[in-house]
Amino acid sequence: MIATEASTDRNPIAALLSTETFTPVEPRDLDETGLPEALVEGLICKRLLSIGMESGRGIADYLCLPFGIVEERLLKLRSRQLMSHRGAAALNDHVYALSELGREFAQHAQAHCAYCGPAPVPLADYVTSVDAQTISAECPRRPDLEQAFAGISVNPAMFARLGPAINSGAGLFLYGAPGNGKTTLAERITLCFGQEIWVPKAIYVDGEIVKFFDPAYHVPFRRGGEDLLKQDCNDARWIKVRRPTVVVGGELTMDALEIRHNPYTHVSEAPLQMKSNCGTLLIDDFGRQRMDPFELLNRWIIPLEKRYDFLTLASGKKIQVPFDQLIIFSTNIEPAELVDEAFLRRIPYKIHVDDPDEAEFHQLFALCTPLVGCSYNAEAVEHLLATHFRPLGRPLRRCHPRDLLLQVHHFCAYHDLPMEMKPEHFDRVVGDYFTVVGSRDWRASRPETPAARAASPAGS
User: Closest Cα to residue 153, out of 332, 331, 355, 334?
Assistant: First the structure.
């Protein structure tokens, strides 16, 4: 059951009509959960099959359902001799255990679907929640961007271009040379949309359970060290999380974009784009996946325009789900080399992430010094530029200050030296760093020994 915090109406449509914060309201009876009784009974019995004995309130907490709803089911299961009392528990409760008949019932339910966890929410309630919490309604302003990008360096010109692109919620390409912070920018963009959202732990659709909550992408919301995930007035089948940022790179395959069904447990898993709803989906290193870029783009060309997607259940039935996220493609390749005009039209913003200039390079070093616990030394940075960048025509990258400072930190730690930004420390680490990153200028990055000069051909 879903509603809004300011609403007393338990009709889900109220969530769409209200401008107040979306909140899932605790159901008062089984009908308001939207779940069939057989499903709840199966979850209760599978819980007891796995744990042996448990109190009624313990079962209710595990299933994230109100005790009153679970207690009614327990009484019915006991009357059918599927379970029995094994003792008294606090608060006028009892400890329950399965009978032999109950174990057979639970094993049959386990064979049909091995899912044992929080009770799911109906798909219709999930769709309503996405509509009520849509990222496209947020429209962040300049102060929101400034707060989200605090602590990192963003070129003012690019900041001005990012603002309208993020505000649109329509998706964008971030392209440019590697090491310039495209991934960092994409991860910060989600913070522009601010507020937290409610997501279901699992979804029930057409007789199947689809696991949704994923700790890898859904970070539970806590304030001041207090757990706000469960409140008396909220439906515990939902969890309050930060707006998700789902990042996928070269490991992305087409299977990850479909509902994944385990044929042994008969439990399904929501696809990545569905887990990113109301948040951000970053396709990092686009063009380097193990699939053709056109295959991926053709899969999403309609969802990007219509803002909904079609997924296939294990039964073969197709369902319609929201496609509601800011989708970002980060790539080192020019977008025109990867996609055609039809797709570029659906990603209206294409933003080039430039190399930093020398002033920003100094600023990046200053921002990174807290990472390694040292003070900023402008003279050491100037020495680095004059010795290892300008003479070689080596391009500046935003990752260089962080990476080189970490190299210096490791050098100082190994030799038991105080961590300091010194020109001689940079001289020692820069050769190894750029030998790996840019092998074409390894000769210039290494100190030339007399033996090397003698062996070198004239004019080389």
Answer: 355
Q: Encode burial over 362-373: b for 16+ CB neighbours within 10 A, e otherwise.
A: bbbbebbbeebe
d(CA 246, CA 249): 10
CATH assignment of 124-352? 3.40.50.300
Domain ranges of the chain: 36-117, 124-352, 358-455
> Which class for 280: exposed (0-12), middle (13-18), buried (19 or more C-beta within 10 A)?
buried
CATH code reported for the domain at 36-117: 1.10.10.10
Long-range contacts for 121-124 (Cβ within 8 Å, ≥24 apart)? 121/24, 121/33, 121/34, 121/200, 121/202, 121/203, 121/204, 121/235, 121/237, 121/238, 122/34, 122/35, 122/203, 122/204, 122/205, 123/203, 123/204, 123/205, 123/319, 123/321, 124/12, 124/34
List, run by run, the mean pLDDT of 10-residue segments along the chain (460 residues): 44 41 90 95 96 95 96 95 92 93 95 95 96 85 85 82 82 82 79 85 96 94 55 83 88 89 94 93 81 79 87 94 89 76 78 89 92 93 94 92 94 94 93 65 44 41
Pairing of strands 308-312, 318-322: antiparallel
Write down the pLDDT at residue 48.
Answer: 95
Q: What is the DSSP letter of 441?
A: G
State the pLDDT at residue 1. 57
**CA atoms within 13 Å, Cβ hemisphere of 345:** 6
